[in-house]
Allene oxide synthase, chloroplastic (Morella rubra), 372 residues
Amino acid sequence: MTILPLHNLKSYPPEQTVTNDLHHLSPRNQLKNFAMDILKRSSKTWVSEVLGNLDTMWDTIESNISKSGSASYIVPLQKFIFKFLTKSLVGADPSSSPDIAESGYIMLDRWLALQLLPTVKIGILQPLEEIFLHSWAYPFLLVSGDYRKLYEFVRKEGKEVLRRGETEFGLSSEETIHNLLFVLGFNAFGGFSVFLPSLVSTIASDTTGLQEKIRQEVREKGGSTLNFDSVKEMELVLSVVYEVLRLNPPVPLQYARARKDFQLRSHDSVYDIKKGELLCGYQTLVMRDPKVFEEPESFRPDRFMNSNGSELLSYLYWSNGPQTGSPSVSNKQCAAKDYVVLTAAMFIAYAFRRYDSITGDSSSITAVEKAN
């Protein structure tokens, strides 16, 4: 949920995380097993938490529009993501701690920024960017206060998940908390915080009549209650989600070292790869291959519909593996791949059960028309 997303739980070795200044994460397979167990158990509350917190998010946006004529959706969206994920994955309600309820998402933003800054393009004059931003890891001390507050919150409020980590996976209490914060903060919150704004911006700024088609499908196929099963029937909604993931993968870069000698093949070339060589996959380029995707630079909301579209899912690699693949402890695919897609589809379906239209851009909603 690449996942960054929600991105892959094995893509970032422990030594690349700032939390490693305090501890050593558990072995990677153990971590992914723990993460997959968390996801499995969270399914009991995931849908209800998504829908309940979407109510709050859109109420806030509506209120801000009525006051100012437009509303930035970034903060309400991040609060929504933080609260539903914390309740689903940790089993803890942020409202039990006023500090976490008010600023928990900001604490995660700062923690993520410190880790990602050495790897992202800022756009300042080169070589200054490389010299001053990309040449070293930033000290954990800069966010240690935030991290400690989140740590203590999980320790006090996430007792059931911590018990499972200790009794079912052989982790210490400290290891369980650190790994849980990594899943919550880096994988889940970080991935959704990148992906969902792209989804909102794409739909809210569309002028081609897409919203009308989405609205019709959502209201015809949504049933009396939204859930994962009902959104699986929404072919256009799912195609829109896939297309946004294709054009704007939450985690554009993945790295790995070759475990053995092998040949890497493209459409027209073969490359000899030696054991131990470092490989980098650039998802944004992979999923704009003109030999696979017609008009690869264009947003085509129906691209993944019908039988031809279903075949293209084998080339949709946003989750560090094909959309037709399945995450396991033996591969590097995002553990929450399916949760990401279905949650995003539910996000769209909820919006178009509540509204006839949504108008906005990359950061703001300027108007909403309530459903009749």
